[in-house]
Design goal:
heterotrimer, A alpha/beta (437), B mainly alpha (295), C mainly alpha (317), A: 437 residues, alpha/beta, D-Maltodextrin-Binding Protein, domain 2, 2 domains, four-stranded mixed sheet, 12 strands, C: 317 residues, MetI-like fold
């Protein structure tokens, strides 16, 4: 420790420079990218089966280009670790950026490298993707983030075997869904498992978004999740009330308190684990991979369609057929060099999409990937749902600034707090947050 | 004699019946203290027991049933040490704590000596400033230091956290030690000066040896503080491989929120060393506390 | 642009003014050098940096855009997570206030009571040791220990198991925004009473037994003796303990981070937690710096108090 004393003058000088300087200079915008050193570091918050699937993609990349790609997972506090690394001048080369609000924030901070600087023009790759998908990663007319994987968020998971035992069938309309809930209770089981506890409050935002989209359509949806959104509008109140028709004390495993204490993976386990206690789990298509993965119940592998399946989120009062909400992850570059450019390009190819798709947890946004490569029937169906949808909409909560949290609002709502007051305050905070961006 | 070992005051009862009467009149006190003892011990015991229970048991029944059906295993510890990386985290805790204790100890001793026994201008002002600095919260340094450490490459090794801990521990250490140093016999030091001893000589041969209790107290204080710290490590130890147990356990909590056997084992691994240090050296610790707080 | 300089910024002047003249001591300079270096580089300079950053937008931790008092204004008027003046008020700052009042007074009160009761029994050292033991345990570990106790399943959580035995339903103290703060404060008290007990016990022993005997002979009950004799006579140690606890409250982080992550929602946040989250998770560095300055401002009165107390004592020497 004594040797650090000799670094004194250097340290002081560095600190002074840090104060005056402008952080890392990402390089000129003249298209000339610096030479890489043959290795890149990619970070995300994926673990378990999602991680395995991604590492297969990295391996394929290394095989093709000879560039080493190391994956670092930060399962908890991902945003914090990422930002601290960036702020400390030590960012990973490539990172998943969770939440488009963060993409905007980081892009405007100057921490993300626009794709154009890496030699990738949006117009060149636009054809690889379904319309609108790439636009999600655009900030101030520059493409920063490329959608690398997505999952439908309009899927309700159940066990066909147990349904047969109970003598019930999947629902196609909201009223049928409510009836299904009652029937399951009559058959002696708990209908719904919900994981809305700490770090899992986003599951509630999924409920809200799909219900809102189905009830009020794409224009209202787009308006709500934009700087012009009005959260005190009656449509919002109606949506939350609708959700509460199902998400309430009587229908949810453990009651509302239980739901607020359960993490999302555990809730999946309540339906698909070795001793299930609930029958329905609404969530993203990735639930299938998680339910059959080592975190929940690997024995279900191979039984897709029999012991585990999903049905479309129902239409509501005749509205919403063909409308699908989806969630996805966007990958951005934080360092500008040739290795990173090659990696980002690789991710836009059908080959990368296919390797990733074979991992069985996600759907590739790249249109050339044939649905037959998906390993299970669940995911094939999911891919078909997304590609044949009339319109798809990205997870609204992820589009907005991360604070105030819609998830927290919904937690309070299902707890029974005064909706009017909650929404008013949320609207004030949200418009401030949009203004601050 | 430690504060904890002081004997009670009051006339001792002489006969057996007097003793019984006194005991009964004290019954409410005994009951209350007994309850207090329980409240303060049971959570720790519960955690300890749980760390040795098989996961299946832990999910099914409460840890208190272990009295009826003892079934123990060390599998949680094995798993948490190996597969979950607490073993490495334990070593990290050691690697972080030891230098973060020794460095400020030495540096504070030196500074305190100068402030106590060497005459120079503005001495008292400087000391008052240091007292003031004791209250500066660590948050004040986070943002600039993270940038600075990262740019000098210290954020991904122990350097950042060592330096940060050392710096923020100094005001209190200097305060404590200087207050102790000035209670040393003035004549002894004067005599040594007259004999021609240098300041360093006086420091080394008189002040330090005579101040072992205070130095030990500060050392133990600092050791416990750093070992048990979470926030500084979270901010200044930015690589998974160097994170101490406190940070590691919060990661585990995120992944295994209800695997209490595992979490209990992890929590106990954090507790073991400080509790041993504390129990065996509590004398110094308490003295240090008292010296720092009460005059 | 002139801003009041924080106390920390004053430090370099006298320290570096080791002007050559009568009394300047090379020895002193050498002995003080390492400490001076560390304090200046890692404490004082960053403090000044952070002060300036708090008046800035602070993108990426750099000085990108001067915003004046905007961060502070927003903090106090537009951030319900930090402070919401309503009825009842809420927010991180409010939670700290709650802690300040409840945690501090109960730690002192329980500390005194336990200290007094312990003097009456032979196992005094043991009971004080038991109560003091949590001081050696990391707040992160204490948080896990008590999350376990508070677990809402009565097969896991001790509290709910006990409640179940008397027929009360399982409650989720940590999952309910109305109870979470009290639940965590209780844990905080659990962890810190030992500190109060030990210090106050030593102080109480300093009360001459004659005074106590005289009061007893005058017919005073134990309760009266407690409130009218003991407490006034240890008022100085009580204030010392209280000040230390208040500082703990302002710096409180570890326990909240591990026990509740500031939740449910944001209902159990405290300012140190908000600083960390706003600066590092949301990247609002200027805003986070403002919170750090608020923390410093809250601690300044204590700083001044310490300095003053020491000065008067030094004069008396």
């Amino acid at each position: 420790m004594r040797k650090f004393r000799f670094m004194a003058p250097a340290m002081v000088a560095v600190l002074v420079l840090a104060a005056c300087g402008n952080g890392d200079d990402p390089g000129d915008g003249d298209g000339e990218v610096a030479e890489g050193d043959g290795a890149i570091v990619v970070t995300s918050l994926w673990g378990g089966t999602e991680q395995e699937a991604f590492e297969a993609v990295l391996a394929a990349f290394t095989e093709e280009t000879g560039i080493e790609a190391e994956y670092e997972a930060n399962r908890t506090d991902y945003e914090t670790v990422l930002r601290t690394r960036i702020q400390g001048g030590n960012p990973p080369d490539v990172a998943i950026i969770p939440g488009i609000g963060n993409v905007r924030s980081l892009a405007r901070d100057g921490s993300l490298i626009p794709m154009s600087e890496l030699g990738i023009a949006q117009s060149d790759i636009e054809g690889n993707y379904a319309p609108g998908i790439l636009d999600v990663g655009v900030v101030d007319d520059e493409l920063y983030g490329i959608m690398v994987k997505l999952n439908s968020k309009s899927t309700i998971f159940y066990s066909p075997e147990r349904f047969a035992e109970m003598g019930v069938e999947p629902a196609t309309t909201w009223d049928e869904l409510v009836q299904l809930t009652e029937d399951i209770k009559a058959a002696g089981s708990t209908p719904w498992a919900i994981g809305a506890g700490a770090d899992s409050e986003w599951t509630l935002t999924d409920w809200f978004e799909v219900t809102y989209l189905k009830m009020h359509g794409t224009e209202a949806y787009d308006a709500l999740f934009s700087p012009d959104g009005d959260w005190t509008d009656q449509t919002v109140v109606d949506t939350i009330s609708k959700v509460l028709e199902i998400v309430n004390e009587d229908n949810v495993a453990g009651g509302i308190n239980g739901a607020l204490q359960t993490a999302f993976v555990d809730a999946v386990g309540l339906v698909f684990g070795s001793s299930p206690s609930a029958e329905l789990y609404y969530g993203g298509g990735f639930v299938g991979g998680i339910a059959t993965g080592e975190d929940v119940n690997p024995e279900l592998q191979g039984q897709e369609g029999e012991a585990i399946d999903w049905f479309d989120f129902p239409t509501i009062d005749g509205n919403g057929a063909g409308l699908v909400t989806y969630g996805g992850d966007v990958m951005a570059a934080l360092v500008a060099d040739s290795d990173v450019a090659e990696f980002m390009e690789y991710l836009t190819t059908a080959e990368a999409g296919q390797v990733w798709a074979e991992g069985g947890t996600i759907i590739s946004p790249i249109v050339e990937v044939d649905t037959s490569v998906y390993p299970t029937v669940l995911i094939q169906q999911e891919a078909e749902q997304v590609t044949s949808a009339e319109a798809v909409r990205f997870d609204g909560a992820d589009l907005m600034p991360p604070e105030p949290s819609l998830g927290f609002l919904l937690q309070d709502a299902i707890r029974g707090e005064d909706l009017g007051a909650l929404l008013e305050e949320f609207q004030t905070q949200m418009s401030n947050a949009w203004a601050q961006e | 004699m430690t504060a904890l070992q002081d004997t009670t005051v009051g006339a001792r009862p002489r006969t057996a019946s007097e003793r019984i009467v006194k005991w009964i009149s004290r019954a409410p006190v005994h009951i209350i203290l007994g309850l207090i003892g329980l409240v303060w011990l049971v959570p720790t015991i519960g955690l300890f027991v749980t760390s040795f229970r098989p996961s299946a048991d832990m999910r099914a029944t409460g840890w208190w049933t272990v009295l009826l059906e003892p079934r123990f295993t060390t599998s949680s510890y094995e798993r948490v040490l190996e597969a979950e990386g607490m073993g490495q985290a334990f070593l990290n805790s050691v690697f972080i704590t030891v230098p973060s204790t020794l460095a400020p100890l030495v540096i504070a001793c030196m500074a305190a000596f100068a402030l106590a026994w060497v005459k120079f201008p503005f001495r008292d002002t400087i000391f008052l400033v240091i007292i003031g600095l004791m209250m500066v919260p660590v948050q004040i340094g986070f943002i600039p230091l993270v940038t600075g450490f990262s740019q000098t490459g210290l954020l991904t090794n122990y350097g950042a956290v060592w330096l940060a801990h050392a710096a923020y521990a100094l005001p209190f250490g200097i305060f404590l030690l200087r207050n102790f140093f000035i209670t040393l016999p003035k004549d002894l030091i004067e005599a040594a000066r007259i004999d021609g001893a240098s300041n360093w000589g006086i420091f080394r041969t008189i002040v330090v040896p005579l101040s072992v209790p205070a130095i030990a107290a500060y050392g133990i204080f600092q050791f416990l503080w750093v070992w048990n710290d979470l926030l500084m490590a979270l901010v200044y130890a930015q690589r998974n491989a160097i994170q101490p147990m406190t940070v590691k356990v919060t990661t585990l909590l995120g992944t295994y929120a209800t695997e209490w056997s595992l979490l209990a084992a992890a929590a106990f691994l954090i507790m073991v060393v400080p509790v041993i240090v504390f129990i065996s050296l509590q004398r110094y610790f308490v003295q240090g506390l008292l010296a720092g707080s009460v005059k | 642009m002139a801003v009041g300089t924080p106390p920390g910024a004053v430090a370099p002047q006298p320290q570096r003014a080791k002007v050559a003249g009568a009394g300047f001591s090379w020895a002193a300079a050498l002995f003080l050098a390492p400490a001076t270096f560390l304090l200046a580089v890692f404490l004082v300079f960053p403090a000044v940096y952070t002060v300036f950053l708090s008046f800035n937008r602070g993108r990426g931790g750099q000085f990108t855009e001067w915003v004046g008092f905007d961060n502070f204004l927003r903090l106090f008027t537009q951030d319900p997570n930090f402070l919401r003046l309503g009825f009842p008020p809420s927010g991180a700052l409010w939670n700290n206030l709650l802690w300040l009042i409840v945690y501090t007074s109960l730690c002192v009160l329980f500390g005194l009571i336990i200290a007094v009761m312990a003097t009456r029994v032979r196992y005094e050292a043991l009971i004080k040791g038991i109560v003091f033991l949590p001081m050696a345990i990391a707040p992160a570990a204490i948080a896990i220990m008590w999350r376990f106790v508070y677990a809402s399943d009565s097969n896991t959580g001790l509290l709910n198991a006990l409640l179940g035995n008397v027929g009360a339903g399982p409650i989720s103290l940590l999952g309910n925004p109305d109870t979470v703060n009290w639940a965590v404060i209780a844990v905080g008290i659990w962890g810190s009473v030992g500190f109060a007990t030990v210090i106050l016990s030593a102080a109480i022993k300093g009360i001459s037994s004659e005074v106590l005997e005289a009061a007893r002979m005058d017919g005073a009950s134990e309760t009266q003796i407690f409130w009218r004799v003991i407490v006034p006579m240890v008022s100085l140690p009580i204030s010392v303990v209280a000040v230390t606890l208040v500082v703990n409250v302002i710096k409180l982080f570890d326990l909240i981070y591990v026990m509740t992550s500031g939740g449910p929602g944001t209902s159990s946040r405290v300012i140190a937690f908000s600083m960390y989250v706003d600066a590092f998770e949301s990247g609002l560095y200027g805003y986070g710096a403002a919170i750090a300055i608020v923390m410093l401002a809250l601690l300044i009165p204590i700083m001044a108090f310490n300095v003053k107390r020491f000065r008067t004592e030094a004069v008396q020497q």
